[in-house]
């Protein structure tokens, strides 16, 4: 399709678009980079400047930009049948083929997929699945859902209530009253100095159980967790965390929702993050990597145990009264199938494991003994460098210094896209699985230069 020539899209963007997570007044004045093209892990903006995308968009373009195979699958589906819905027993073929593929790849016991369009809407669906399931079992009081501080589950009302980041609650009067939060499994800040990993796990599991007991187990329906907390800081759980948590949940008849939106489809070097940490989900949320973001698609993967209750409830409660116009969209499913073919044919999960080990080693090498780095951590092809004012004892920067955002800005100047994560000064790295060794070296090198620039500035400002 020919785009109209001589249009200043950047001016239109500043004038007409209301951007997410953006300082709107600043943006209306100055705008930001406008990306017009992508190939592999490289983006090009409207001025012709290129960037290495060390974030795969928002942790999602896992097979990289410019994959013609996915474009072809989208086109073919669009000309054959662009849309039909899944309400009232109607169906289309690509979502059915995809659902089988997802269930077969998922952890044991998973049985069905309910499709949506975003991680947020899928997590809202999870909440309703939990409520419906418990109502059907004659336990309608089990409505509270426990999430974790620094967890990210999306921005729709239920999902945002589960998200454990203050910035997403402020100004909206949320969390809604069904949500509770427990401590993040972030050893750097949440364990006492010298506390062993095992003691930290015991503390976390104990606090979860105390909360369930305080609220009353008859009021608690589910616990939701990402295998690795992504947007909240790339927080890697301590060893034994999930088995200990699961024991508590089972004891109190509380379902486990595993939010695999970032980890799913290879990011940790395995098909799902659950495999890495011994997690046995009752419900699993997927999005992002299922299509590598070429088309929006999400899903709730439901275990046989939960499905049986929900299906049986039709007799007493009427049909499961929930669904979106775009539930099981055939074009999204076709894109997902092409994306999963690429991941399989090119062994990109193996590549994520291999390149991930390389990237984490290179980051540890470049940043490990930097005086302003408190921790380099990660798993598979996702990593974080957490910046601190002082290493011993670990001390945060004054948030008003905006250290991580400044590093991100300095990196952007050098043609590198990373992200500053909220709650502390953390830089994230989550490139497409097709990243090469040379690109990893370039990403790490530019990130180090950016940190050095900001370190010098802070030193000149007398902030160190
Ligand atoms: N869950 C997790 C773990 C996520 O990382 C995200 C998005 N970053 C979401 C849910 C929400 O997904 P979406 O932005 O597609 O609504």
UniProtKB/TrEMBL annotation:
It comes from the Bacteria. Coiled coil: none annotated. PROSITE patterns: AA_TRANSFER_CLASS_3. InterPro entries: Aminotrans_3 (IPR005814), Aminotrans_3_PPA_site (IPR049704), PyrdxlP-dep_Trfase (IPR015424), PyrdxlP-dep_Trfase_major (IPR015421), PyrdxlP-dep_Trfase_small (IPR015422). Gene3D superfamilies: Aspartate Aminotransferase, domain 1, Type I PLP-dependent aspartate aminotransferase-like (Major domain). Signal peptide: none annotated. Keywords: Aminotransferase, Pyridoxal phosphate, Transferase. Its cofactor is pyridoxal 5'-phosphate. GO terms for molecular function: pyridoxal phosphate binding; transaminase activity. The keyword Transferase applies. PANTHER family: AMINOTRANSFERASE (PTHR43094), AMINOTRANSFERASE CLASS-III (PTHR43094:SF1). Belongs to the class-III pyridoxal-phosphate-dependent aminotransferase family. This is Aspartate aminotransferase family protein.
């Amino acid at each position: 399709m020919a785009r109209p020539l001589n249009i200043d899209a950047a001016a239109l963007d500043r004038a007409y678009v209301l951007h997410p997570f953006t300082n709107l007044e600043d943006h209306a004045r100055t705008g930001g980079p406008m990306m017009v093209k992508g190939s592999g892990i490289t983006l090009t903006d409207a001025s012709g400047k290129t960037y290495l995308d060390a974030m795969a968009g928002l942790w999602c373009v896992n097979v990289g930009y410019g994959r013609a195979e996915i474009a072809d699958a989208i086109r073919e589906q669009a000309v054959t049948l662009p849309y039909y819905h899944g309400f009232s027993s109607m169906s289309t073929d690509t979502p059915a083929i995809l659902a089988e593929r997802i269930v077969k790849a998922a952890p044991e016991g998973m049985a069905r997929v309910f499709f949506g369009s975003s991680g947020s809407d899928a997590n809202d669906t999870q909440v309703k699945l939990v409520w419906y399931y418990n109502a059907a079992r004659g336990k309608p009081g089990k409505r509270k859902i426990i999430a974790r501080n620094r967890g990210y589950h999306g921005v729709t009302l239920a999902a945002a209530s589960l998200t454990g980041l203050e910035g997403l609650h402020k100004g909206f009067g949320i969390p809604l009253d069904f949500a509770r939060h427990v401590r993040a499994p972030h050893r750097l800040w949440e364990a006492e100095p010298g506390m062993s990993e095992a003691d930290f796990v015991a503390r976390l599991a104990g606090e979860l159980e105390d909360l369930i007991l305080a609220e009353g187990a008859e009021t608690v329906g589910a616990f939701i967790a990402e295998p690795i907390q992504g947007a909240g800081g790339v927080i890697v759980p301590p060893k034994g965390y999930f088995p200990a948590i699961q024991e508590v949940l089972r004891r109190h008849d509380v379902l486990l929702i595993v939010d695999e939106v970032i980890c799913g489809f290879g990011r940790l070097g395995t098909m799902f993050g659950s495999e890495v940490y011994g997690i046995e989900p009752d419900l699993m949320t997927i999005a992002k990597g299922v299509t590598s973001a070429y088309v929006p698609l999400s899903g709730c993967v439901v275990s046989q145990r939960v499905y049986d209750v929900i299906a049986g409830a039709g007799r007493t409660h009427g049909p499961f009264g929930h669904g979106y116009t775009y539930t099981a969209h055939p074009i999204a499913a076709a894109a997902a199938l092409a994306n999963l073919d690429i991941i399989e044919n090119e062994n990109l999960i193996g590549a994520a494991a291999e390149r991930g080990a390389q990237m984490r080693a290179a980051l540890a090498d470049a940043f490990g003994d930097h005086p302003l780095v408190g921790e380099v951590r990660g798993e598979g092809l996702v990593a974080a460098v957490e910046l601190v004012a002082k290493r011993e004892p670990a001390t945060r920067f004054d948030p008003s210094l905006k250290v991580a955002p400044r590093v991100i800005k300095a990196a952007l100047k050098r043609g590198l896209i990373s992200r500053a994560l909220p709650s502390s000064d953390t830089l994230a790295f989550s490139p497409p699985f097709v990243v090469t060794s040379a690109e990893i070296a370039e990403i790490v090198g530019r990130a180090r230069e950016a940190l050095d620039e900001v370190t010098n500035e802070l030193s000149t400002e007398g902030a160190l």
